[in-house]
Amino acid sequence: MGLPAPVGVSWIGPPPAGDGANAVDTGSFAAVGASKPVPILGYANATVWAAYKSALTAVANSLAPTVAAIGAIIAGCSINSSLVPPGTTVASINGTTVNLALPTVQLQGVLNSDGTISGLGSTSWLAGAAVSGTNVPAGATVAAIVTPALFPPSGGNAPVTCGVIKLSAAPTTIAPTNVPQTFTFALAAACIAAGVDNNALFTGVPVVFNGTVQLERSFDGASTWLPTTNWNAPGGTPAVFTGNASLPFFEAEAGVFYRLNCVAYSAVSGVTINYRLSATGGASRSLTTGGVI
Question: pLDDT value at position 53?
Answer without folding.
Answer: 92
